[in-house]
Write a structure and sequence with these properties.
- With 272 residues, this protein is mainly β.
- It has two helices and 20 strands.
- The strands form four sheets. Strands 5-6-11-7-10-9 form a six-stranded mixed beta barrel. Strands 14, 15, 16, 19 and 20 form a five-stranded antiparallel β-sheet that branches.
- Strand 14 and strand 15 form a beta hairpin.
- The longest helix is centred in the middle third of the chain and has 5 residues.
- It is globular, with a radius of gyration of 20 Å.
Length: 272
């Protein structure tokens, strides 16, 4: 049986994000997430896994350990539980609309400046995050353990990240020190609005298949999500179960759970 390791390398420009992140930084302090030790090449980090979510320990301004989901589908670092930072006496720099602008379900949040945010031996100083005014994702209920936030592009854009689900381990590499092995396969990734996309093939039934563009989302608990009608061949299977798929910042996502014949990514094939 072939083992599947997910190695993610996002090479990108540092974006100002409409004032979310300040580019002003002291000359002796690296901008964004970096290894605490100057010449560190990589670190090994164990993670917990709950309902297919990768949960890593995070400290904010030397706080107690918080649980954050490592989520490639999220852009800026997001504190989903506003109560998590109450004792730190942080000031809201600016209020923003996070989702549902102009609607009755408008969700607002605060941009908050942190002295530091740390994941093991990785740290960002003078870093801004978004704190939601209320916890709409209810990740703690889904995971069965307290979840305080999400961390994604802010971290992935700085490092090469190897995810070993079987042993629940991360290896986080400095990009210029990373040496890929000759084994395995490489897949092109496009970055759109700080989210990574890949192309794969979905075999819907014995006669139909579709080339699909997918968000590579480690924060999604389900294995594969397809949007009915996005391709002529992608329709809800006759045998399906109506289900609550999950929560987003815009509200609940409902859909149908069913089977497809096969999913193919390069030479990797997963039978339905």
């Amino acid at each position: 049986m072939r083992q599947f390791y997910l190695i993610i390398l996002l090479i990108s420009l540092i974006l100002s994000g409409q004032g979310l992140i300040s580019l002003t930084c002291a000359q002796d302090r690296p901008f964004g997430f970096h290894f605490k030790k100057k010449h560190q090449k990589k670190i090994h980090l164990d993670f917990e896994q709950y309902n297919n979510l990768i949960v890593v320990p995070v400290q904010i301004n030397n706080s107690d350990t918080l649980n954050f989901v490592l989520d490639t589908g999220v852009g800026y670092t997001l504190v989903t539980d506003p109560k998590a930072l109450n004792h730190l006496d942080l000031n809201c720099i600016r209020q923003i609309t996070v989702a549902g602008a102009g609607s009755e379900q408008e969700l607002r949040g605060c941009i908050v400046h942190l002295n530091s945010i740390r994941v093991d031996d990785i740290e960002a100083q003078n870093h801004n995050v978004i704190v939601l005014e209320k916890d709409v994702l209810h990740l703690s209920s889904y995971a069965g353990v307290k979840i305080h936030g999400l961390i994604g592009y802010d971290l992935f854009s700085r490092f090469v990240v190897k995810i070993n689900y079987q042993h629940r381990k991360l290896v986080i590499h400095q990009p210029d020190k990373f040496k890929p092995t000759s084994k395995g396969e490489t897949f092109p990734i496009s970055i759109e609005q700080m989210k990574p996309y890949i192309q794969a093939e979905a075999f819907l039934n014995e006669a139909e298949r579709a080339t699909v563009k997918l968000i590579l989302d480690t924060g999604a608990g389900h294995s594969l999500s397809l949007e009915a009608g996005s391709h002529p061949s992608i329709q809800v299977p006759e045998r399906n179960i109506t289900a609550h798929i999950g929560m987003t910042l815009n509200g609940a996502v409902n859909g149908a759970v069913g089977r497809i014949n096969k999913f193919k990514l390069g030479s990797y094939e997963m039978q339905g």
